[in-house]
Amino acid sequence: MSVTVIVGSQWGDEGKGKIVDLLSDKFQIVARYQGGANAGHTVEIGDKKFILHLIPSGILREDVICVIGNGVVVDPQALLDEIKMLESLGIKIKNRLFISHKAHLIMPYHKILDSINESGNSKIGTTGRGIGPCYIDKYARTGIRIVDLLDRKILEEKIRCNINEKNNLLKKVYNHNELNIDEIIDTYLKFDNEIDQYITDTTSFLNNAISEGKSILLEGAQGALLDVDHGTYPFVTSSNPTSGGACTGTGIPPTKIDNVIGIVKAYTTRVGLGPFPTELNDEIGEKLRTIGFEFGATTGRPRRCGWYDAFLVNYSSMINGITKAAITKLDVLSNFEKINVCIGYEINGKKLKYFPTSIHDLENSKPIYETLDGWNQNISSIKNYDELPGNAKEYLTFIAKHSSFNISIVSVGPKRDQTILLEE
Ligand code: GDP
Ligand code: IMO
Ligand code: MG
User: Fold this and answer.
1) How many angstroms is it from 156 CA to the middle of ligand 3?
2) How many CA atoms lie within 13 A of 354 on its CB side?
3) What is the predicted pLDDT for the residue at 226?
């Protein structure tokens, strides 16, 4: 029995959804701890493809209980749409989904402000889901939490107070139409009717489950380099996807975490703006995007693609305390004669000791590459490590050594069974 955290080790979209679904048959509870509907986690089972934004990827295993933790920002409309989508596919949600009463609500003005910010000079390339503005209100201590839905009077008061303030901002600063307060109150009261059944004290629920010896998988969204503290700031999201966020985002103490599994894509991708030292703006990048089908699961945007960056993942291993790594999308590299791996950065010919903190330094960092031979063989139906081509095994050994992790899973395709489990 254990508490295991799943973290994205790069800039998101590493294949967390696939691995969470795969592992969740060994866990009784799967909980999300941060982010919101900016996430897009894909799970492919048979010929069905599910994209989950808010509901944990464990929902596709009928015996698993799913929790949306306090660190998540919940867009009630996105949540209800997702519940409806899953129910229409025959997946039972009632008595299987629990939402923290401490989680904050995304309000219509958060999405408007997200879009206004993105049209200005400090563009990040966000998903437009209102994530940043909602976390701003959380930290400004003016946010509206799920618990507020439970008391009509408090909800009305809080919404009124917030919208009065936001209307001032929208009208006077941004010359935007004012929002209709009563309409929004009505909408959120209606949400309450539907969401009420899922709301609970998830902190106590999760800690009691641990005391009873139950196993819990904590599903991170985004990735370490998008972490607001440790990522490539300011081109980050507004939460802590790193493993520390799993504690604050659920109320599970650090002393109860047993494992941290880093999900690591066999090359690198990034969506949105910000420096990306190993990015390939050429036909190799295009080839990775086409073979890897690198298009955003939430926004459909083409993902920027580049070589594997061991210097970056080594940093990620350190800040996450990765105990084991799951390498995903190794199959995508099968058609390359030569494969580059970045093992360090240099600026003006000087090798860096540490992953740069300044965005300016990161922009000026030149990757130092080692070139490995490709394997030119389709590996997508291989089930045992020993059957992998020698050069593929060498690639795995090389990236593990330079990224400071041990590999426990290798994924060679999007489906559950396209997975190689390594001996303990
Ligand atoms: P997440 O946000 O980390 O859950 O990742 P996404 O779902 O946004 O993106 C990962 C994409 O790669 C999805 O389309 C998955 O179905 C797919 N995928 C996951 N693992 C593999 C793999 O090993 N090989 C291939 N070819 N595709 C994979
Ligand atoms: P999953 O969980 C990849 C990126 C956005 C943008 C930045 C800030 O599927 O891996 P936000 O809307 O969060 O304020 O955007 O973060 N981003 C992601 N990139 N995968 C994600 O989630 C992401 N969620 C946010 O593209 O650069
Ligand atoms: Mg994704």
Assistant:
1) 35
2) 6
3) 98
**For residue 18, which ligand has an atom nearest its CA?**
1
Together in a domain, 229 and 85 = yes
Q: Are residues 125 and 273 in the same domain?
A: no
345 and 389 co-located in one domain: yes
**Using a 6 Å cutoff on CB, does residue 237 contact ligand 2?**
yes
Q: Are residues 203 and 188 in the same domain?
A: no
Alpha-carbon gap, residue 340 to 411, rounded angstroms:
20
- Measuring from atom 25 of ligand 2, which residue has the nearest CA? 38
**Whether the Cβ atoms of residue 224 and residue 7 lie closer than 8 Å to each other:** yes
- Domain containing 155 — which CATH number? 1.10.300.10
Parent domain of 12: 3-100+199-260
Single out the residue in 195, 227, 252 at which a domain terminates: 195
Going by C-beta distance under 8 Å and a sequence separation of 6 or more, which residues neighbour residue 304?
A: 269, 270, 271, 276, 279, 285
Predicted local distance difference test score (pLDDT) of residue 1: 57
What is the CATH number for 207? Answer: 3.40.440.10
* Cβ atoms of 329 and 267 closer than 8 Å: yes
In degrees and rounded to multiples of 5, residue 17 shows phi and psi of -55, -45
Taking only the tens place, the pLDDT of each residue in 182-231 is 999 999 999 999 999 999 999 999 999 999 999 999 999 999 999 999 99
How far is 368 from 314, CA to CA, in rounded Å? 14
Q: Are residues 283 and 388 in the same domain?
A: yes
Closest by CA to 225, choosing from 38, 355, 347, 136, is 355
What ligand 2 atom has the least distance to the C-alpha of 301? 26
> 181: which 2 tokens?
């307060």
Tell how many helices (H) and how many strands (E) occur in the chain: 12, 20
Residues in the chain predicted with pLDDT less than 50, given as ranges, are none
